[in-house]
Specification:
Elements (H helix, E strand, L loop, with lengths): L5 E8 L8 E9 H4 L5 H11 L15 E3 L7 E5 L8 E4 L10 E5 L5 E5 L4 E4 L12 E6 L10 E6 L11 E7 L9 E7 L11 E9 L2 E8 L6 E5 L4 E6 L7 E6 L5 E5 L6 E5 L12 E6 L8 E11 L2 E12 L6 E16 L3 E13 L3 E6 L1
Parallel strand pairs: 3-24, 13-17
Antiparallel strand pairs: 1-2, 1-25, 2-4, 5-6, 6-7, 7-8, 9-10, 10-11, 11-12, 13-14, 14-15, 15-16, 17-18, 18-19, 19-20, 21-22, 22-23, 23-24
Length: about 375
Amino acid sequence: MKARQFLNVVMERYGTGGAGGSLYTVSRINAKEHLFYRSTAEAQAAEKSRFDMECPSSAVVPPWMETISRMPPSKLRFERSTSDNKRLDFLPFHERGSGAASKILCVDAAGHTALYDMDAGSVQPIPCLNSPKGSRPISFSTTNPEASDRERADAFYVMGRFPSSYDPYNFEVLMYSNPSNGRTMKGWNWLKLPTPPAYADNCIVNSHALLEIEGDSILVVSSGEESLGTYCFNTASRKWFKAGSWTLPFLSRAVHVPELDNLLFGIASDAPNHFCAMGISRLLSKRCPPLVYSWPHLDLPEDWIMQDCSFVYLGNGRFCITKVFEFGLDEDTGNTTEMGAVMSGVEVVHHKKSGLIMVNHRSKFYRFFRDDIQCVL
């Protein structure tokens, strides 16, 4: 996989749009320049020096963490003119393994969509979803093996986190259609896909991942309901099958990295300050694959309360982990007074004795005022 250079940071600024709506902006950060040292050895040396620094009080950013006063100028601005509380979601849409990650699909609460290409500075019209997918839908991109036009071979899948028997369009795929098949109009079209067969109403998909197994792209979804467990969807056959009555041990999205011992990486659901990896060899054998590695990430004051977290794989063993915190306890009210996000660069490398090890690079802190980091992709 070609390494990515840029991260897209989506910010939401409240009360700045028309009629009291919100203004969304997308900035780009050069991850190599801002989150990583020049070498693994330099990162390891910097990490050792942190042990001599005392952990500060809860209202103070640790001395080894750099602070970002402002994000780079926005490359994209999107204004929601209404004053309702329905959010916009920004989903990564790009060719798998291209490394560019410049395309972003914007989806609103009604299912309207628009495709932005950050590199080209263009907007492409996309049909509406057949049905809205709710807040923070699951999405992933892969290649359509049956595409006649290799320049338009992307297949983009979107699924709601709350599958419902009342919504036959809970799971859809966006593909470029050839008019010669007589079924659809020329261009991008949303096609209906089957929902996981045993997922009952009011359940939630807690974790998901996209795997590449023997040439097939397999979507894995996992629910916290023990009776539901984990299901897999084969994008080639378009059929679901049950992996087992267990659940993936990750928060939200996990990433399959074949070049790192063919492991699945993610943030631990029961210990969100740990970055973990598990094997996939038993994934289809009805047994929960064990965690192979679990590395602690970020040494922060105990009263820093994590509100959200996510990560992006950049290629070449490098990841960006983003965590949103509340901190700075007010002794009179018992409420936190500060809020901000920490963006960290970490690297997973092979070690002669330990197999794989995680090396911390740079961490940068961004304090919230009127705006909020919605996502990093």
